[in-house]
Specification:
Oligomer: single chain
Structural class: mainly alpha
Order of helices and strands: HHHH
Distance between the termini: 13 Å
Radius of gyration: 16 Å
Number of domains: 1
Number of helices: 4
Shape: elongated
Largest sheet: none
Length: 129
């Protein structure tokens, strides 16, 4: 068993599941979406992105691209949440602001799903030598 592949697969799947956990819920209800879960999704996606830098294959390049997209969208969601909660003086997130954050995380979720599918395809097509 290749420990590097296990760690890589762990972070790819964990990034997708954390993002999914944040995304699920009413689109405009801030109570349904935890800021801590968004933070965890951002951190794990960034770790997964760093792990993908070493692979020089075509599949590795696509893995890196999906991870960069997911990280970028989650960072944008975190910036919107931070700005709405701390800079705007409405006392919290409005349904519109929450919808923006959740929509950005939905785009990141799609990129994470593509990454998981690529991981499964790569694993299934692996030939033992």
């Amino acid at each position: 068993m290749n420990l590097e592949k296990v760690v890589f697969g762990f972070f790819v799947v964990l990034a997708a599941t954390l993002n999914f956990g944040f995304f699920i819920g009413d689109l405009g209800d801030p109570q349904m979406h935890s800021v801590y879960e968004l933070f965890a999704a951002v951190v794990v996606n960034l770790v997964a992105t760093v792990l993908k830098f070493g692979d020089r294959t075509q599949m590795g390049a696509v893995h890196l691209a999906t991870s960069l997209v997911a990280s970028l969208q989650l960072l944008a969601a975190a910036v919107v949440w931070t700005y709405a909660a701390n800079v705007l003086t409405n006392g919290g997130l409005s349904p519109t602001q929450t919808a923006t954050v959740v929509s950005l995380s939905g785009g990141a979720l799609f990129a994470n799903i593509v990454s998981v599918v690529l991981l499964v395809v790569e694993t299934v097509s692996f030939q033992r030598r």
